[in-house]
Amino acid sequence: MKKHLFILIMSAIWGNLSAQLKTYSGDYEYYDGSIRYFHYDPSGRAVYTYKESSDGERIYHGKFSFVSQDSNFSVTGNFIDNKKSGKWTYKNSSDPFFTLCTVTYSNGILDGKWEFIYYANIYRGKLTRETKQRIFHKEIRNYKQGKLHGVYKREEESGMSINATYNEGKLVGAFEYSQDDYKMTGNFDNQGYPTGTWIEKGYNSTSKHSFYKGICYKSIRINNQTGKIEYKEPENAPDDLLLSDTIVQAIRKGSRNIIIDGNKYHIKDFNKKLYYNIDNDSQFTSFKNCYQLETYKEPEPEKPYDAVEQMPTFPGGEAELMKFVSSNLKYPLTAQDKGIQGRVILRFVVTKTGAIDNITVLRSLDPACDEEAIRLIKSMPKWIPGKQNGNSVPVYYTLPVVFKLM
Questions:
Q1: Contact 218, 237 (CB under 8 A)
Q2: Is residue 352, in this structure, part of any structural domain at all?
Q3: Could you count the other beta carbons within 10 Å of the beta carbon of residue 135?
Q4: Is 97 in the same domain as 231?
Q5: What are the CB-based long-range contacts (under 8 Å, 24+) for 282-286?
Q6: Which helix (H) or strand (E) holds 167?
Q7: pLDDT, tens digit (0-9, with 9 covering 90-100), for 238-291
Q8: Considering the domain boundaries, does residue 305 fall inside one?
Q9: Which run of H or E residues covers position 250?
Q10: Distance between alpha carbon 389 and the CA centroid of its chain, in Å?
Q11: What is the end-to-end Cα distance of the chain in Å, rounded?
Q12: What is the residue range of 342's domain?
């Protein structure tokens, strides 16, 4: 009795649900930006079931199918409350060329296996119509809640192949890319950073990049024919150079110059495009948030200007400069005894901070007078720096110092 009652109740529920669903069959324009590698005619016919909201809007629910007007492109799948669910199949055929893509969804999000294949059926005989499948492009992905997760494989007839593994959107483990004479192999750590030795092998040369937690601490390129090193960075890096977690942390916090075992290195972004960007097809890209050690070179001093829009000035102006000179100049007694008088002409640099630097005697009067003139210039307070395009810059300044007997 209870069994029969349960069957009657379920039948009533199903009948009620079925009564709510309606079916559409007719002309349809199909657009789906999520499918890749497909070129198709969006005009065609569709058959799908749906519910209606309180305001009469259709809510896709149940099976969906579409066939283009030229019958070359078709789509089949299921919706649950307007969201794709389960396995969806996309086909494009123009004999002998075929494209097939199967995608798994959960609640409208990629979740599960994604597989794409582009191939052609090559006919061997006119009578038997026996065919052989020629694959141009095959690709397998796996997703977890919209993020790449699991094995990724791609093979193309052109010779390109990619093998990688993802963990919730991050590349982890071994990575391999190859095409023709070029091959790249390496590994990612659990955080998605390149780690260990990445080998980039081409026809003419082989490069090795050593990483630790996304920091490239050594790069070497060797000529395949001569075996000689063509490039090494940092140039002063010892063979046993290793990074510590403390150094990695300092680099990630913004340190751009760092000392390791007594050697100083400069830190720059790692911009070399090493791996094929799966998410942005047909492009090589550089690693995100990765850095590289390079040989530290002392920055060259900025070349002083001879003239600028706003010349440097002594604090208080020309009058204060003359006052400073007359109050602080000490006439050497030896020069006075010899009756020496005249001018010492000096040139110096007023730096971008207003400091005095690089004092040079352009016209000498007497060794003692020259020395006193230099001392006077060195004793000056900071000047107001010169400016060019609104920026403080170093500028040459020429000043005569007069020695006159009274």
A1: yes
A2: yes
A3: 12
A4: yes
A5: none
A6: strand 161-167
A7: 888 889 999 999 999 999 999 998 899 999 999 877 766 676 655 677 788 899
A8: no
A9: helix 245-252
A10: 32
A11: 136
A12: 318-403
CA atoms 282, 288, 290, 294: torsion sign:
positive
Measure the CA–CA gap between 100 and 84, rounded to whole angstroms.
Answer: 18
CB neighbours of 277 closer than 8 A, spacing ≥ 6? 283, 284, 285
Alpha helices of 95-193 — where are they, by DSSP H?
none
Q: Report yes or no: 45 and 28 within 8 Å, Cβ to Cβ.
A: yes
Q: Which long-range contacts (C-beta less than 8 Å, at least 24 apart) are formed by 116-120?
A: 116/36, 116/37, 116/140, 118/37, 120/96
Number of H helices, E strands in the chain: 5, 27
Instruction: Please report the sign of the dihedral spanned by the C-alpha atoms of residue 132, residue 138, residue 144, residue 145.
Output: negative
214 and 91 in a common domain: yes
Is residue 32 assigned to a domain? yes
Give tens-digit pLDDT for 301-340: 889 999 999 999 999 999 999 999 999 999 999 999 999 9
Rounded to the nearest 10 degrees, how much is the dihedral formed by the CA atoms of 350, 353, 356, 360?
Answer: -40
C-alpha to C-alpha distance for 196 and 332, rounded to whole angstroms: 69
- 310 within some domain: no
Q: Which residue has the tokens 């070029």?
A: 182
> For the domain that residue 373 is a member of, what is the CATH number?
3.30.2420.10
Considering the entire predicted model, what is its pTM? 0.69
Question: Which residue among 295, 310, 330 closes a domain?
Answer: 295
- What span, in angstroms and rounded, lies between the C-alpha atoms of 234 and 317? 49
Residues 291, 344: one domain? Answer: no
d(CA 235, CA 264): 11
